[in-house]
Amino acid sequence: MANIIECKNVSFNFVSEDNVETKVLDDISLSIAEGEFVSILGHNGSGKSTLAKHLNGVYVPTQGKVYVDGMDTSDEDKILDIRKKVGMVFQNPDNQIVATIVEEDVAFGPENLGMHSDEIRRRVNGALATVGLSEYAKHASYKLSGGQKQRLAIAGILAMTPKCIVLDEPTAMLDPVGRAEVIKIITQLNKKLGITIVLITHYMNEVVGSDRLVIMDGGKIRLQGTPKEVFSNLEVIRSCGLEVPQTAELMAELGETDDLPLTVSECADRIIEMKGLDV
Ligand SMILES: Nc1ncnc2c1ncn2[C@@H]1O[C@H](COP(=O)(O)OP(=O)(O)OP(=O)(O)O)[C@@H](O)[C@H]1O
Ligand SMILES: [Mg+2]
Hints:
Elements (H helix, E strand, L loop, with lengths): L2 E13 L5 E13 L3 E6 L5 H7 L8 E6 L2 E2 L6 H7 E4 L12 H11 L4 H14 L15 H13 L5 E5 L7 H18 L2 E5 L11 E6 L2 E6 L1 H5 L2 H6 L6 H8 L10 H12 L4
The structure holds adenosine-5'-triphosphate and magnesium ion (MG).
């Protein structure tokens, strides 16, 4: 399948006011296929958000190239097209709301593109239905819960019909109910609509269903693979300052790391099988 995103040998330096350069991304090469669900993990300051901002041209590499659907993000003529292909959702739900009424917030992006009002209405209704907020269309956006606000932010992006959505810790400020709602919607967007998802999170239980995990450390990619492959490397994960899912830890204790069971039900099945239990 075609790659929606290609990072080729990307390095990025921040330059301070007194001209001191800090290398934050160091020779990152990463391809993301259309329709893939990729999660990025890494401890604080490992460069995740900086990488995310390269994926729709908010930052351009100091060295190397990022291509979005074949378009070079350093080509200023392409930046609008790139932003239409790759939408971003950030951590703080309150910072992403631009209008006081829910449906007006979703309409903001399409309106700015000068779209016909019938098309705007169609997109707004479609996006609100997809994130489960249709009944809140006329509500005040600031009154929504945190999880609903993040779903509203996602609807605003869906109204731009993106191929890919990058979410930088979208659940970090939510309660468990809001977190579950947002992860459910993201998963549906990927599985039902084929939208490519890049999810940055600190919650291990949110990544076990991903197609691929990318572990960052010190501005580099330290490890990548399927969740089963990555979480089989407990020592490497820990050396990157990350927790491992409790399921992986339990299976490691039991010496059951072949085709590592990661969900609770997979673990239960494996234990039943190991013990020859009859249930
Ligand atoms: N505007 C900036 N100017 C200078 N340095 C910065 C700037 N933004 C980030 N950094 C530095 O770049 C490094 C990577 O930051 P980044 O925000 O990408 O990390 P992160 O993995 O997203 O961390 P977190 O988990 O805390 O969100 C950090 O050392 C940070 O201090
Ligand atoms: Mg960050």
